[in-house]
Amino acid sequence: MAEFLGNPFFSCRNCRNPLALREDLLNKNFLAKTGQAYLFTNVVNIALGRKEDRQLITGKFAIATIYCSNCGVELGWKYLAAYDVKQKYKEGRFIIERSKIVKEY
Ligand SMILES: [Zn+2]
After folding, report:
1. Residues in domain Yippee (predicted)?
2. I need a labelling partner for 83 at 20 to 30 A (CA). Which of 8, 25, 52, 55 fits?
């Protein structure tokens, strides 16, 4: 299990599995099912669901649902591919719902 000793990070609200470094948080202004969501460049200790196409607010994407590797709770999704050129910067990045994580120091 990856850990982030000495650096602020976010962990799974359900089981405290470390998921992402604070410095890998790109943007807090995203929306997911339960409300606010964060965009990260990198997330660890997750399991990926199968690839699927999804129509999101900003367009159509190929995404995979991401789950906590420890407790299996659904956290958000990974952008695998964007159909809109302007959305390509999201490819390979991750959305995690704010309600599913806690900030750790
Ligand atoms: Zn968990």
Report:
1. 8-105
2. 25
Tens-digit pLDDT profile for the chain (105 aa)? 567 878 999 999 999 999 999 999 999 999 887 799 999 999 999 999 999 999 988 899 999 999 999 999 999 999 999 999 999 999 999 999 999 999 998
- Residue written as tokens 């995979």? 64
Beta bridge partners of 62: 53, 81
Residue type, 79: Y
Question: Which residues surround the ion ligand 1 when the cut-off is CB under 5 Å?
Answer: 12, 14-15, 17, 68, 70-71
Query: Is 9 a domain residue?
Result: no
Provide the number of structural domains found in the chain: 1
Assigned domain for 86 exists: yes
CA distance linking residue 6 with residue 61, whole number of Å: 35
Which residues, listed in sequence order, are joined to residue 103 by a DSSP beta bridge? 10
Using the mean position of ligand 1's atoms as its centre, give its distance from the Cα of residue 96 in Å: 12
* Residues spanned by the domain of 53: 23-104
